[in-house]
Write a structure and sequence with these properties.
The relative contact order is 0.21. The protein is globular, with a radius of gyration of 12 Å. Helices cover about 50% and strands about 5% of the residues. The model has no long low-confidence stretch (mean pLDDT about 80). The protein is built from four helices and two strands. α3 crosses α4. By secondary structure, the protein is mainly α.
């Protein structure tokens, strides 16, 4: 995951070469938006529809992603 949440830090924007709006428009799998419930729902959707069940999350976003992990684990 290159971004968890609504903002893309400048150092990541240069790495992926697209702005936030473009990623949203194309339903990019590198972007996970919304609150913990929305993020968990999106990951479940991707698993069901695309068979994607393994993600690597940039360490810069681990605090933002921790509640999503807890929610997926049923906590």
């Amino acid at each position: 995951m290159h971004r968890v949440g609504e903002e893309i830090p400048p150092w990541i924007r240069g790495f992926i070469g697209h702005d936030h709006e473009t990623l949203v428009e194309h339903d990019s799998l590198t972007l996970l938006r919304g609150g913990p419930a929305a993020m968990a729902d999106e990951l479940q959707r991707r698993r069901e529809e695309l068979g994607v069940s393994y993600y690597s999350v940039n360490g810069a976003f681990i605090q933002d992603f921790a509640p999503v992990i807890a929610r997926l684990a049923g906590r």
